[in-house]
Amino acid sequence: GKYHLKDKPYLLVMSCIVAFVSGGFGETFVVLQTTSLIILLLLLFFFGSPELKKKLIPFILLIMLFSILAMIIIVLSPGNKIRSAYFVQTTDPIELILIAYTSMKTFLYSIFKWPGNILTIIQLLTITAYFGLIEQNQNNINKLSNKMLLWITAILPIIALILLFSSFFPSAYGLSKAPPARAMISPIYFTVCIIAIFGYCLGILLSNKIVKWSLESRFIKFFIYCTFIVFALNGLRDTKRILANEDQLKIFSIAFDTREKLIIDAKNNGENIVYVPKLDHFMLSALKNDSTYYVNECVSDYYGITVIVDTTLLANNNIFYWRK
Questions:
Q1: Does residue 118 contact residue 112 with C-beta atoms inside 8 Å?
Q2: Three-state DSSP class for 312?
C-alpha cells in the first residue's frame, strides 16, 4: 500500500527492541535470527520491486544491526569466559565449517532414519500445499508472477539448509562439537516454518495445473479426508511416545523441586556450602561433585551458595548436610 517507514516510526523502534531482546535468548537463536534477516535482505534485493526495496530494505537493515549488536554482547558475556575454561574453542574457520557440517549431517541422519519423522514432514507439506491450492485466488498471491514464485519456491529448501547449517556454528565455536539436543529447538522451528512456506508455495504453483472442479470432486475430497486421518493418527503416535516418559519426568520434577528447597533452606540458614543428591536425567550438563565445574559455578552464583553433588545421598529423600 502507501505505507512508509516515516509515517509510523514506532514500528521501527519496536522491531529493533524485539530483535535486540530476542537475540539474548541464546547463541543459537541470535545466529538464526541474524542469518534470517540477511537472507531476507538478499531476497528483497534480487526479487523485490524498486518500491518494495525502498520501503523495506532500510527497515530490515536497522533491525539486522540490532540483532548483530545482541550477538556481539552474547559473545562478550562473562558466561562464555567461564565455559571456555572447560571446552576447547575452535578458531580455525575450516575446522569450524567441518564441525558444523558433520554435526548437521548427523542431525539430518537422525531425523530421516525414523519413518515417523518422514511421515510428519510429508504431512506438513501436504496440509500446506492443500491450503495453497484452495487459496489460489487470493489478491496477494496474484501480485506474484509465476516465474518469481517458482524461483522463491526453488530456493526455499536452500534457505532451510543454510539456516540449519548456521545453527551449528555457535556450538562448533564454543564447544568444538555438536550442540546439545535442547539447543536444536530453534533450528527445528525455523526449518518447520520454511517447509510450511515451501508447501504453500508449491500448492499455489500446482493450482495452475489443476482445474478448480477437480478439488471439489467427491473422490479428491475423500482422498484428502483419508490422508488427514492418517496424519492425525501419526500425531497420536508421536504423542504416545512423548507421554511414555511422563512418569519419569514427574519423578525428576519432584526430585528437582525437593533439591531446590534444600538449597534455599541452606542459604536461609546462613550456610556457605550445601551438598545435594545427584539427579539423573536426559540433560548432559548436570551438577557434579566439583565446585569449580562451570555448571556448579553457574548454579552457585544463581542461588548465592556453593552447591556440590554428593553421590552418597539419595535423590528421593531429604538427607543432606551443610558445611560452613
A1: yes
A2: coil
Nearest to 88 by CA among 174, 170, 179: 174
Neighbour count for residue 4 (Cβ, 10 Å): 10
- The answer to whether residues 199 and 124 touch, using CB atoms and an 8 Å cutoff, is yes
The string of DSSP codes covering 73-110 is: HHHHSHHHHHHHTTSPPP--HHHHHHHHHHHHHHHHHH
Q: How many residues would you count in the chain? A: 324
Please spell the DSSP secondary structure of 100-163, one letter per residue. HHHHHHHHHHHHHTSHHHHHHHHHHHHHHHHHHHHTTT-HHHHTS-HHHHHHHHHHHHHHHHHH
What is the C-alpha to C-alpha distance for residues 230 and 236, in angstroms, rounded to an integer? 10
The alpha helices in the chain, defined as continuous H runs, are 9-23, 27-47, 50-76, 78-84, 93-112, 115-134, 139-142, 146-166, 169-174, 185-207, 212-215, 218-243, 246-268, 294-303
- Distance between CA 230 and CA 76 in Å, rounded? 49
- Return the closest-CA partner of residue 54 out of 16, 2, 13, 18: 2
Please state, as a whole number, how many other Cβ atoms lie within 10 Å of the Cβ of residue 37. Answer: 19
pLDDT per residue of the chain (324 residues) written in tens, 0 to 9: 455 556 567 888 898 999 999 888 888 899 999 999 999 999 888 887 788 888 888 889 999 999 999 999 888 877 666 666 667 777 788 988 999 999 999 999 988 888 878 888 888 898 888 888 877 555 455 556 677 888 888 999 999 999 999 999 888 888 788 888 778 888 999 999 999 999 998 888 887 776 555 666 777 778 777 877 877 787 787 788 778 878 887 888 888 888 889 899 999 999 999 998 887 665 545 788 888 887 888 889 889 999 998 877 765 544 333 343
Tell me how far apart the alpha carbons of residues 42 and 60 are, in angstroms, rounded to a whole number: 11
Whether this prediction's pTM lies above 0.90 is answered by no
